[in-house]
Amino acid sequence: KNQVEQSPQSLIILEGKNCTLQCNYTVSPFSNLRWYKQDTGRGPVSLTIMTFSENTKSNGRYTATLDADTKQSSLHITASQLSDSASYICVVSGVSGGYNKLIFGAGTRLAVHP
Amino acid sequence: NAGVTQTPKFQVLKTGQSMTLQCAQDMNHEYMSWYRQDPGMGLRLIHYSVGAGITDQGEVPNGYNVSRSTTEDFPLRLLSAAPSQTSVYFCASSYEAGGGLQNTGELFFGEGSRLTVL
Fold it and tell me: pLDDT for A46-104, tens place per residue?
């Protein structure tokens, strides 16, 4: 079973618009949650890392929120640009199968159109 | 800054052939790892290392070997390639080993190696 679920699977928006990507997880306990951006044909690049005590973290036009009670996180992108077209991956660091590990979501593929 | 360097970027193998994917990092990171990325799935950990001379299995280690003779290098060997190993492989490193699989530090990924096994 996938313990990190991302939605939507894919999304198309117009340049300049805002969007929000969702990440729901069942990993418990967990130590931190990360968002990565992966351009096509490239490796993932870290956007934010949030511990369970942090509610919001920003990185330029990217703002991540975390609700540890409901086990939900979101990534909000403001004033989207063509360069935001990429896959966005949610990663939870926690306990699974009796040991600590990083659990990756399948990602949301975002396409920003002019 | 080179960061994490993977070679080759593309490789086509026939079933049964062996090969080595190379990974090198110049950030003096103790933790290094190999992941595979398949369509519709999250990255899955193959093997990892928390320092030179120390390696351990991840969640999908079958068919792969690793070694860590230096801090900088962490090659991944496919012993006898199978079509199920067709995937994109990523090497990642982190400053913090975090006690085995925990790895609370930021991961730095290479650009990936796309492997096709016919």
Answer: 999 888 888 999 999 999 999 989 999 999 999 999 999 999 999 998 766 656 678 89
What is the spatial distance between Cα B83 and Cα B85, in angstroms, rounded to a whole number? 5
Q: Do A107 and B101 touch (CB under 8 A)?
A: no
Q: Residues 6 or more apart from A69 whose CB is under 8 A from it?
A: none
Closest by alpha carbon to B20, among B71, B62, B93, B74? B74
CB contact under 8 Å between A102 and B98, yes or no, is no
Q: Which two tokens stand for residue A17?
A: 């618009």
Q: Judge whether A19 is closer than 8 Å to chain B, CB to CB.
A: no
B38 CB near a chain A CB, below 8 Å? no
**Cis omega (within 30 of 0) on the bond before B8?**
yes
Q: Which amino acid is at B42?
A: G
